[in-house]
Amino acid sequence: MIIVLQPDATEEQQEALLADLKARGYGVHCSRGVERTIVGVIGTPERDKDGLIEHFESLPYVERVIPILKPYKLVGKAFRPEGTVLNVRGVQIGGGTLCVMAGPCTVESAEMLLETARFVKKMGAHILRGGAFKPSTSPYSFHGLGEEGLKILQEASLETGLPIITEVMDTRDVELVGRYTDIFQIGTRNMTNFSLLREVGNTRKPVMLKRGWASTIEEWLQAAEYIASQGNYEIILCERGIRTFETYTRNTFDLNAIPAIKELSHLPIFADPSHATGKRSLVPAITLGAVAAGVDGLIIEVHPNPEKAVKDGPQSLSFEQFGQLMQAVRPVAEAVGKRL
Amino acid sequence: MIIVLQPDATEEQQEALLADLKARGYGVHCSRGVERTIVGVIGTPERDKDGLIEHFESLPYVERVIPILKPYKLVGKAFRPEGTVLNVRGVQIGGGTLCVMAGPCTVESAEMLLETARFVKKMGAHILRGGAFKPSTSPYSFHGLGEEGLKILQEASLETGLPIITEVMDTRDVELVGRYTDIFQIGTRNMTNFSLLREVGNTRKPVMLKRGWASTIEEWLQAAEYIASQGNYEIILCERGIRTFETYTRNTFDLNAIPAIKELSHLPIFADPSHATGKRSLVPAITLGAVAAGVDGLIIEVHPNPEKAVKDGPQSLSFEQFGQLMQAVRPVAEAVGKRL
Amino acid sequence: MIIVLQPDATEEQQEALLADLKARGYGVHCSRGVERTIVGVIGTPERDKDGLIEHFESLPYVERVIPILKPYKLVGKAFRPEGTVLNVRGVQIGGGTLCVMAGPCTVESAEMLLETARFVKKMGAHILRGGAFKPSTSPYSFHGLGEEGLKILQEASLETGLPIITEVMDTRDVELVGRYTDIFQIGTRNMTNFSLLREVGNTRKPVMLKRGWASTIEEWLQAAEYIASQGNYEIILCERGIRTFETYTRNTFDLNAIPAIKELSHLPIFADPSHATGKRSLVPAITLGAVAAGVDGLIIEVHPNPEKAVKDGPQSLSFEQFGQLMQAVRPVAEAVGKRL
Amino acid sequence: MIIVLQPDATEEQQEALLADLKARGYGVHCSRGVERTIVGVIGTPERDKDGLIEHFESLPYVERVIPILKPYKLVGKAFRPEGTVLNVRGVQIGGGTLCVMAGPCTVESAEMLLETARFVKKMGAHILRGGAFKPSTSPYSFHGLGEEGLKILQEASLETGLPIITEVMDTRDVELVGRYTDIFQIGTRNMTNFSLLREVGNTRKPVMLKRGWASTIEEWLQAAEYIASQGNYEIILCERGIRTFETYTRNTFDLNAIPAIKELSHLPIFADPSHATGKRSLVPAITLGAVAAGVDGLIIEVHPNPEKAVKDGPQSLSFEQFGQLMQAVRPVAEAVGKRL
């Protein structure tokens, strides 16, 4: 932590600051330039940092406080430089494979889900996605089948052997959803729902943490740290687009986040080209781009009849489109040394 | 709802679309221009709209669907053109008064809260704020005193007569917090926590809904509609700054939102200059600007000793600063015809 | 300047860095923490800084470089703490007065401009605005009357005595526009047109520099520094809204920028509520808010018949609306101690 | 164009609007719903559109005006559905090839440029980049060698046979730069410098138009329309990252823009991974991602000694890194059917 003093900080103020720091047990380096005095603080214990930064920033004679270390540790690269590899009922995530999760936005019925599950499996997908509890901007929209949807997912999993991933939105549902799903999904709207993060952190099931639509990479990793801090290290990050001024697409897919996460964290990173674009016609290009940039996996919306989808029809691929995309993904994955 | 067809939509596709619309009971106006055919759909029932828009956008021969009506109704201006006025234990909110909520970010102890409560009351504040459950970007930061904090708030309220407002973050805590607080606060991070919105919607206590840091005004009103749709119309909106590329301030205070809410909704609108800036030195100017632009109230962080604040010290006002600000607010409120 | 080394930087690399810094004549403070080594560099000459920061950031063993001093000097607060006051043909700008510039977006004809000039003068405006060269997103829109428009402005100025402000967009037009106008306006789209900034910096006429719609406050001040670095210190800053994800308004008026500029710079700061909102109905509230937050002046679009305006009709006030607004501004200006 | 009336628009107002539209020669469809009346306007001549939209939006009884057609024509997909292919001194751009432009940010000396030109040619690059006129946020930074830099570029081009691309920033320099360069580059800061766009539109040399850092895809295409409207159709678009709230990277590379441009325009689209990230370590992943997503070319900063680069060192690749990247690009390009 570095503390930059105001140009008009007095001698007394500087002395008081140094005394305070020493009393807290920190080492101190004070460097008096012509225009500013800068205090280097050594040995800040990680856990106190947030509070300390705010404390020193509150002092009237402090211009700003600059943290030096990252505000996360368990999910940081240094914690496990070789990278995290998960095994979800035989499906490997991370470690040189490309994992494909596919399925409808929402579980609408047993028939449509089974039909989709069989098809995506045949095309090479590894995990089945489908929503039973659905967030929705409007209170009057469909919010999912709830536990009935979970049962249908389980059925489809039993028949096809595909593990499943489904979203949980309420701390009170974590236990219920956990009875059915193989992977919890935390949606973009709940990335800063800290109670929920802690609750899934208390389970020992893998969690896919989608990036908040207006969250920085650092905040995203701090959200992952919430989960890890409860003892659950089985975390998958998923870039799903962020909010910008652009209106042609639903979100802006932040491709930079893929290599950035690779250099900052040991966690696997996925892409969600469906939400990142909101437009079916753009999904293939974004999928291929994400694979070439190094993602560990994909999560893609597929529907037997997108025009009749209850939700997210405009961004869902038809079976035919998904089949073609899987064909196109293979050579790109190979070109960057990934096993599909 | 207006449906714009792709330039290459065939006659058959147009006929199919019109037939579909008529079968659903809608009136249809079809206008064939030189380059595009446009279909006006009349009589869309409000509740189906979200699903319908996605349905029609999913059709391969549809270029885009343009909603005409707002996606909220209960919180829309037309629902109650005269404006909503709340009465919280004798304190009027809306309707020409300027209501000031003040207090520390976090309840740290009974002493500091009482001291603050007495002071802000003396300076003319109407409601006491203070956090017992605190969201925090880092899992290692302080998260509030919990129920103990609620009890301290109640005590301070009993002594000073000030009603209280405090944040609730977890659906499981709504009942507990509701036993102590006069107003629920939903923080920016939970504006899209739809389970929580519904839960406070099921109570009959007033709710202050802060704007999500990356939420449009329309999404904010839809979040309010979640609460109202459960039967709770006692809602206060609060602009607390949005996220932009600017880094000098913690957020960007969106002043436009004040008159925009006034023309779109009947709900009272507050400003939170503390979070909107993140910098104590900017709080007075933003407070005065918000008052002149027409807010119904303010929520301001005040701390007996900001340098020792557990959280949000850099944006908290000292007693002296809050006293001076209240002095400065008075003539501006009068200049725009508000009673403080 | 502070240089943070990578955790794996070797002894030799550190030595090389320190030797390099000393050879350049800098003082050096090296602080070796448990996880990072941090090098404080003292005595960085202002002018070299940009290049140096990039140089050190390019080193493979450097994690990041943190500048300590602001990247502008002539326009910084410390350069003239008492604040800059301009005098434009008898009109004072800055120093406790509130200066109102008003007029149409575009000079459409001599009649409409004269009519507007007379009216805004009567209502108390101090300076007449009007565009002769107009930027336009579409190449097919109207681009202004050019020199004819300048002549009309001059005529209106002669008759009413109001000084004029008009935009210049091309380095080749600076001489021509300078023959007619009292103040150059640099539009938001040209805030980073550095050739143009230098060109108006070479004149000795006042320049209003609008903030780039996606420029930080720091970049804005650096753009002002371009003008000042040529010897022209007669600069007025103007906040006109920035670009965000919000779509209800044309831009987001960044109220925080008003007090922020006041603490960072000595230059007068204006607000443009017309462009900041893009909606006539929001202009009054933003105007009052800006005045209460401390602006030194306003620039407002007024048109005798907004429905017939060639450009910016939706955000232009009618005569009646402008008259009412001036009435409303007065008590707010007084409430914050400004002379109108 | 569709005009949505205010709910309280009177019969007379509606009649006046319809009469106005008919007098202008438009066809009109009027659809009266329960809550809104909507007027479809048919036959809007493209060129008048901007003005008309503003005109109708200015009417007090109009809620909003919705344009149906795109505000650009010459650069739109429909104008040349087969796509534009350029030939720059034997180098094909567009049409199934992947074109690589490489070189230093700035021409620093004849030696370094020649060394770089020879190396990038050997590695398979097709065009040499290098700045002679450099934009810079600070007035005190290096601004390029000017004409001397142009001469050095020409020399390197003569020796290696590589065509060159270099930036032009001032309308007054277009003639000069045009004497030396094969392709004009318009930088992100000048995307809305309309005078400059028109000036290069008046030449018959290819122009690379970088996206403005806060410009929508539609505005970018309108800027391209400026160039095309002067008769110069030899335009290359270049996505170089947009500005968001993310601070870890210099910009956010908008991958969605690649397929979006492919569906909206016939112009070739390039990626600039150097500026898109600002970090050398992220350049390879973004390059591969852009290629897989379908770009027609790349423009990459390469420097013989990035640590000594005058500008943009942190994002420049060393020779070794560029050589490795070209190796990695080849199989990805092949996987998506592009010839390198």
Write the layout of secondary structure elements.
Four copies of one chain form a homotetramer.
Chain A lengths: L1 E4 L5 H13 L3 E6 L4 E6 L6 H10 L3 E5 L19 E3 L2 E3 L5 E5 L6 H13 L4 E3 L17 H14 L3 E4 L6 H7 L2 E4 L7 H8 L5 E4 L6 H13 L5 E5 L17 H8 L4 E3 L1 H5 L5 H10 L4 E5 L17 H17 L5
Parallel strand pairs in A: 7-8, 7-14, 8-9, 9-10, 10-11, 11-12, 12-13, 13-14
Antiparallel strand pairs in A: 1-3, 1-4, 2-3, 5-6
Helix pairs in contact in A: 3-4, 6-7, 10-11
Task: Explain what this protein looks like in three dimensions.
4 copies of one chain form a homotetramer. Chain A is built from 11 helices and 14 strands. The first copy, chain A, has 2 domains: 2-66, Alpha-Beta Plaits; 77-335, Alpha-Beta Barrel (TIM Barrel). The longest helix of chain A has 17 residues, at 319-335. The mean pLDDT of chain A is 93. In chain A, 35% of the residues lie in helices and 18% in strands. Chain A has helices at 11-23, 49-58, 110-122, 147-160, 174-180, 194-201, 217-229, 257-264, 273-277, 283-292, 319-335, and strands spanning 2-5, 27-32, 37-42, 62-66, 86-88, 91-93, 99-103, 127-129, 164-167, 183-186, 207-210, 235-239, 269-271, 297-301. In chain A, helix 3 (110-122) packs parallel to helix 4, helix 6 (194-201) crosses helix 7 and helix 10 runs parallel beside helix 11. The A-C interface holds A 2, 4, 7, 27, 29, 31, 33-36, 38, 40, 42-43, 66, 68-69, 78, 243-245, 247 and C 2, 4, 7, 27, 29, 31, 33-36, 38, 40, 42-43, 66, 68-69, 78, 243-245, 247.
